[in-house]
Specification:
Layout lengths: L1 H16 L7 H11 L9 H8 L3 H7 L9 H15 L19 H8 L7 E2 H10 L7 H8 L6 E2 L2 H15 L14 H5 L2 E2 L13 E2 L5 H5 L9 H8 L8 H8 L9 H8 L7
Antiparallel strand pairs: 1-2, 3-4
Helix pairs in contact: 2-5
């Protein structure tokens, strides 16, 4: 009973303690820098969640242009309003270790990132997914182009299955969930990592796994040395013993006879466009 009587007074006292407009911009700048754990000049949902304990609705209140990136200007404009709405002072806590979510299945990805409820992930939603998984350096348009098989600028159905398998592969390869995430200069450098499959009891050895999505040449260039050697093809066919001659096929594609098939030779043989190489 006493608590119920005191609650209005406590609420009024709390709201009275909230910052009034105008707010000290220097203080907000300090708050912003604290939340901006990776120092990239904008705040992701993950940073706001970990540092300010915001849910997605509160984060959306900051994100005025709905680009999944809260700028300093947006933060300054919305801080007082959001603080009053959540009913407590938003004092950020420094987050020293960035957490990485475990891989999710297609339905879990939709539940987490499908903001418009269309059962698909648009480019902006995929961008948020990549940010939260620490993959900000991956060119989002290239990733979308490789995952989006029907070219409708969104991921759904089997495309989401592929994205989910990709995250699982990256996690198995140690790229996700290992504390500090490394920096990658290209899509091939990130997605083209070769992972040896563990040997199973009473099962034939399987070829190495490339997480993907990668283009045709990189998937055949198993060791990533810039050329497709005959050893790459033999390893990819493990444990199959083909009825045709791998050496003859390799020799036919290796038109300059230097022992390695380059991108131009592969493109000429299969009529690949520049985007497919």
């Amino acid at each position: 009973m006493l608590t119920r009587l005191l609650l209005p007074a406590l609420t009024a006292a709390l709201l009275g303690a909230l910052p009034q407009d105008p707010v000290d911009r220097e203080l907000l700048g300090t708050y912003f820098a604290t939340v901006d754990a990776d120092g990239n000049g904008w705040l992701s949902y993950r940073e706001c969640r970990d540092s300010l304990a915001l849910d997605r609705e509160a984060y959306a209140s900051f994100d005025a242009d709905a680009d999944f990136r809260v700028s300093l200007e947006e933060f300054e404009k919305s801080y007082v309003e959001v603080t009053r709405r959540v009913g407590s002072l938003l004092v950020p806590q420094a987050v020293t270790e960035r957490k990485v979510d475990l891989p999710r299945g297609p339905l879990q990805l939709l539940a987490a990132y499908d903001r418009d409820g269309d059962d698909a992930l648009q480019t902006s939603e995929l961008m948020q997914l990549f940010d939260e998984y620490g993959l900000q350096k991956v060119p989002i348009e290239t990733a979308m182009a490789n995952l989006d098989e029907n070219s409708d600028r969104s991921l759904s159905g089997a495309e989401l299955e592929r994205a989910s398998r990709l995250l699982q592969s990256l996690y198995a390869a140690g790229i996700l969930g290992n504390g500090e995430l490394p920096s990658y200069a290209s899509v091939d450098e990130l997605f083209g990592r070769t992972v040896e499959r563990p040997a199973a009891i009473d099962a034939s050895r399987q070829p190495p796994l490339i997480a993907g999505p990668v283009l045709t040449f990189r998937r055949l260039d198993l060791d990533g040395d810039g050329g497709i050697e005959i050893d790459d093809l033999y390893r990819l066919l493990t444990p199959v013993t083909p009825s045709f001659s791998i050496g003859a096929i390799h020799a036919g594609l290796d038109t300059d006879e230097n022992g390695s098939i380059d991108r131009a030779e592969l493109a000429a043989a299969f009529g690949l466009s520049a985007a497919e190489r």
